[in-house]
Each structure stands twice: as C-alpha cells, then as structure tokens.
Design brief:
alpha/beta; 6 strands
C-alpha cells in the first residue's frame, strides 16, 4: 500500500458560488476555509494547494450572532508608537463589506506561502453581481 500525494500540476480546480445572505459569519468562514484548503476533496494533501476557487456574493448581508454586531472591532497597527487603529464592525460593513469575510477566512488559513495562495482563490463581492460568469461557478447551498 502506498499513500497518494497530489502533485501541483495534476490538481483539478472547480469554481463554486456561495450566497452569504443571512449566513452566520463564523460558520461561513469555516466552510470557506475548508473548501480553499481542499479538505472537502478526497485528494487532500497538506503540503499542496488542492482547494477550489470560491466566489462569495452578498457579503453585505452576512449575519452575526449575539451582541457581536455592536461589540466586534477590527484592529491594525502601523508599527509606530501609538499607531493602533480600531474600526467597528458596523463601519467596516458599510465601507468594505467584502473585507469582513476575507478577514475571517484569512484567520483560518495557514500563515505561510501556501495559505496566501489559498487566500487568493477567494473572491468576495458586496452585492449579487460578480465578474466570474465565464468560469460558470457551481452554486452551493449553505445552511443557517
């Protein structure tokens, strides 16, 4: 018996379409991270990017549970003393709704070159329109 290891040249990628309307952010992010890593495929290999491309639409309609909509904040630091910036969830959702989903998924991917390659396969759009019609993404239904 020998273990199968996928090779980067023989990976078959698929385009998937996910509608984020009324889906809880954390549940959506975990599902997206698994698809981007390739863990939903039988050919999954930890050291090879075997994941699929994912197009997420209606990012502005994603949902949070509890009081997180009022309490959640995003932080960034410039590297200089006193350079900490804080942006509330509501403000981020109004200005850049796609960054909310991208930030949640990026935190669940590996922090290395492979993880950055996986993150580039995620395409998030605020509204129902997307420019990837030529790829004919297959719609996936998410529960809850």
């Amino acid at each position: 018996m020998s273990t199968y290891y996928a090779k980067p040249g023989e990976v078959e990628r698929e385009w998937l379409l996910i509608d984020a309307t009324d889906v809880v952010l954390g549940r959506l992010a975990t599902r997206l991270a698994a698809i981007l890593k390739g863990k939903t495929k039988p050919q999954y290999t930890p050291h090879v990017d075997v994941g699929d491309f994912v197009v997420v639409i209606n990012a502005e309609k994603v949902r949070l549970t509890g009081n997180k909509a009022e309490q959640k904040a995003y932080y960034s630091h410039s590297g200089y003393p006193g350079g900490l910036k804080e942006v509330s969830y509501q403000r981020m959702l109004q200005a850049h709704p796609e960054r909310v989903i991208e930030h949640a998924v990026r935190g669940m991917l590996p922090k290395n070159t492979l993880g950055r390659a996986m993150g580039r396969k995620l395409k998030v759009y605020a509204g129902p329109e997307h420019p990837h019609g030529a790829q004919a993404p297959r719609p996936i239904e998410l529960e809850g």
